[in-house]
Specification:
This protein is an alpha/beta fold. It has a domain of 148 residues. It has 19 helices and seven strands. Strand 5 and strand 6 form a beta hairpin. The chain is globular.
Length: 503
């Protein structure tokens, strides 16, 4: 589980960064430094655009990014997402033909808007017409239930990955669909496509695992990159109110974080019975043995004493004997009456101590999702310190070490979740600037405080206004890296936008 989650985090970070076509680093990527040299520090992500001043459309929500409730239809969106994947064209079986198609699509994905071959892409996407139809229907269903609760077990987690991968593949072609409509300045169609995309990202992310949430966040990054393209099109409609009326946050973190807790609890299917009071030694031993059976399935980690190897070598009786004395003390410290703990068989005490420590760490991380980002980061740092102390105090307990390894995953999810909100908020500020310019002779404001037509949101990561400067018709909107961190694509971005003159 841990290695699988770690690999997924790495892959998704790369996907979310690489899926914003009009954004580019301030400097070209540097080659690997020669031995003995120091690589230059990373740069913030820079999105360079030429945009048109634009007043709010009439009606204000003529272009939307999430379907209204009145546009929803009865049905489970998950079924239509699955149908969309099944209806996609079959990839060429011939290796040479498959490679040619992949190279062609990759070339389209890397093309700038001015060089994007819309007609050619649309001809290719005709084969996806039925898949897109099912995807559009899914995005307008009144609920989405992936029915994954039965798979929230160590054995079932592997069945979830192909399903989320299928949504990434659909998003790849939905992205091309959006770009083709934008190149042809068909903003109504592009709005429909974006509406489908953002709902897909939201539905995928609001599943019961951190992996699903990260995939959904990666999809949201894909579609946010298409909003950049929208802003850069000549005379593109203003999306200020469409961005303002999105759900905030776009992705609800609770389903994934709660589901992740259910997954870990599946290590102890009898935990509720064990928590009620003393049970027989046979039942307690069986509960612990089931947890060990699961741990034995894990491959060795990069640690010298990998979890799977450790669980395979240590016998149940030796493990109980090693853990029981300290577990008994800690269980009483966690609030269990001493008289009740004395009546419990040693295996039950060991299981309840491990689960109690897990709940303490898990609740510590879960509560951070409810805080504003700066406060969440600070609280997560304190939670990490508390987790480190718990692990050190129980360094011979393989289960507690396992639970502690989920902390980096929660930290990455928190960061990725905040990054999505920050980009969308930054775009909302840009649309406020375009609105101001449309009412002031095409000139951007000297300061954000000059904008009075609409409220200008603050940077959600700092609680302060975005950094801003203007020089003639060019302005910069900057979301800086947190204090003490070097800027990179995950913690900062910068828009450099030049406003077009009148046609």
């Amino acid at each position: 589980m841990i290695r699988l989650l770690g690999c997924t985090l790495t892959i998704l970070t790369a996907v979310s960064v690489g899926s914003q076509p009009v954004a580019k680093p301030a400097d070209p990527p540097t080659k690997d430094a020669r031995p003995g040299t120091v690589a230059p520090p990373p740069k913030p992500y820079v999105i360079t655009l030429t945009a048109s001043p634009a007043a709010a459309p009439v009606p204000a929500l003529r272009y939307e990014l999430i379907a209204r409730q009145r546009e929803r239809t009865p049905g489970n969106a998950a079924l239509h997402y699955q149908r969309a994947y099944q209806l996609r064209p079959t990839w060429p079986r011939n290796l040479a033909e498959s490679q040619r198609q992949e190279e062609m699509i990759s070339k389209w994905e890397q093309a700038s808007t001015d060089q994007f071959p819309a007609a050619e892409v649309k001809k290719f996407l005709l084969g996806y017409a039925n898949a897109f139809k099912a995807l559009d229907i899914a995005a307008r269903c009144n609920h989405c239930d992936w029915e994954l609760d039965i798979n929230l077990t160590p054995d079932g987690i592997g069945t979830m990955l192909p399903e989320v991968q299928s949504q990434r593949e659909l998003a790849r072609f939905q992205k091309l669909r959006i770009e083709a409509d934008l190149v042809e300045n068909d903003f109504q169609a592009a709005s429909r496509d974006l509406m489908t995309g953002f709902r897909q990202a939201k539905d995928v992310a609001e599943g019961p695992t951190l992996i699903r949430m990260l995939v959904g966040i990666a999809l949201a990054a894909v579609y946010t990159g298409e909003l950049d393209r929208w802003v850069g099109r000549p005379n593109s409609p203003n999306l200020y109110w469409a961005l303002t009326t999105l759900p905030h946050p776009l992705i609800d973190p609770r389903p994934a974080s709660i589901g992740e807790g259910q997954f870990v609890e599946a290590l102890f299917p009898e935990i509720q019975a064990l928590e009620k009071g003393p049970v027989s030694p046979e039942r307690a031993n069986m509960a612990l043995e089931r947890a060990f059976d699961t741990l034995r399935q894990f491959p060795n980690t990069d640690e010298p004493s990998g979890l799977g190897t450790f669980a395979g070598k240590v016998g149940l009786a030796a493990y109980i004997a090693l853990q029981y004395p300290e577990a008994k003390k800690q269980l009483i410290a966690l609030g269990r009456p001493a008289a009740e703990v004395d009546k419990m068989p040693p295996a039950q005490v060991v299981v309840l101590r491990a689960y109690g420590v897990y709940r303490a760490m898990y609740d510590d991380w879960l509560k951070c999702f409810s805080l504003p980002y700066p406060q969440a980061v600070a609280e997560q740092a304190r939670a990490s310190e508390r987790a480190a102390k718990l692990v050190k105090a129980n360094e011979t307990d393989v289960m507690i070490r396992l639970f502690s390894l989920t902390q980096p995953a929660f930290a990455k999810v928190t960061s990725a979740h905040a990054r999505t909100e920050r980009r969308l908020t930054g775009l909302r500020v840009i649309e406020a600037i375009r609105m101001h310019a449309a009412a002031n002779g095409g000139q951007p404001p000297k300061q954000l405080a000059e904008i009075t037509l609409v409220p200008v949101p603050d940077d959600p990561n700092t609680g302060k206004p975005f950094e801003y400067s203007a020089d003639g018709t060019t302005f910069k909107l900057m979301a800086p890296a947190p204090a003490g961190e070097l800027p990179h694509v995950a913690n900062s971005f910068q828009y450099v936008i030049t406003l077009r003159g009148p046609n």
